[in-house]
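A protein record in our archive is deliberately plain, so that people and models can read it alike. The tokens are whole numbers drawn from a learned vocabulary of local backbone shapes. For reference, a complete record is included directly beneath this paragraph.
>
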Amino acid sequence: MQLLQQGKYDKALAVFEKLLPAAPPEIVERARMYIVTCRRQMGRNNLAFQTPEERYDYAISQLNQGYYEEAREQFNGVIGDEAGADYAYYGLAVLDSITGHPQECLDNLSRAIELNPKNRLQARSDNDFQSMVDDPRFTELLYPEIP
């Protein structure tokens, strides 16, 4: 556990893998979980993106797998690399909708629309905003022409 907490994932992985075959049944599942954690952390360190779009694609894959913190980190990284990346703001808006952050969703979607008005049309039919459909602010953002 010390190695894991110190961020020495390769060494911690070796210890957990060695422990697993002889582990008592009550800790086998926890050891497997730590093995997965070590592998995931080691994989993060090897990430290298050639373009903001590649980073965005990775963020979407993390979002789809339910790794919301990693997805948020990658979307924000895209924005850090390219301030006008409307698609990254849109991705953050989707993430905020899915994770129950309505104000952040509205803020990010508003920015995405400001950068690229076509995002308004896309959001109108995007099922990822299902949690927002009853929010009048969401309706006003997507349909500003309706009084």
About this structure: The chain has nine helices and no strands. The mean pLDDT is 90. The CA atoms of residues 13 and 115 lie 44 Å apart. Residues 2-45 form one domain.
